[in-house]
Amino acid sequence: MAYPDKLLADDEEVVRHLHPHWLTVFWPVVVFLVLVGGGSFGAALIPEGSNQGVYRLLITALVLVLAVVFVTVPLLRWRTTHYVITTHRVLYRVGILSRTGRDIGLSRITDVSYRQTLWDRIINSGTVTIETPGESGATVWSAIPDSDAVQQLLNHVVEEDADRRAQESAGYLGQYYRGDTGPVQPGR
């Protein structure tokens, strides 16, 4: 799924759009399977009688409430967490009902590092830390799939952004020293 174009500048393109590693939704899926199995088993154990329907309805309601809390919320949290790398900045957005976000211009990034535990190496995941000057401190992206490649990609786009800015700056200086006031007209 492409990141919303309304958040991007005219000359900005999405380089990579990530969600947390898919294993972050492993336990919610396991909980869902246990809830369905346990609820079905519990409903089957209810003896026949006049209150059988009421008890089965209560079990169903309990399973639904637990499913919302332990399955739907983590799945929505995973789905609504966005790590986006563009040609001009990195964006972090998280939240289901209320949203939190942070945008960091590539020119402000001073260091990008990643950390992987043994388990992270096995599942090809990790934590990426983006250092910027100022009081806000480092931005930490957790459970990033292929974190070492993301760290390399961030370093690459930071260098490309610095090169692009240097070329634009050199172009403006050249216009200033040549006395150019605008684009060159053909035939002049």
Summed up:
By secondary structure, the chain is an alpha+beta fold. It has four helices and seven strands. The longest helix is centred in the C-terminal third of the chain and has 32 residues, at 147-178.
Walk me through what this model shows.
The model has no long low-confidence stretch (mean pLDDT 88). This protein is 46% helix and 19% strand. Strand 6 and strand 7 form a beta hairpin. The strands form two sheets. The chain has a four-stranded antiparallel sheet with strand order 1-2-3-4. A three-stranded antiparallel sheet has the order 5-6-7, covered by helices on one side. The radius of gyration is 26 Å and the shape is elongated. The chain has 188 residues and is an alpha+beta fold.
Instruction: Tally the helices.
Output: 4
Helix content: 40-55%
Q: In terms of per-residue confidence, which ranges show pLDDT below 50 for 5 or more consecutive residues?
A: none
> How much of the polypeptide forms β-strand, as a percent range?
15-25%
Biggest sheet, in brief? 4 strands, antiparallel
**Overall pLDDT score:** 88
Secondary structure category: alpha+beta
Q: Which of globular, elongated, flat, extended, rod-shaped describes the shape?
A: elongated
Number of distinct beta strands? 7
Radius of gyration: 26 Å
Order of helices and strands: EHHEEEEHEEH
Distance between the termini: 48 Å
Strands in their spatial order, largest beta sheet: 1-2-3-4
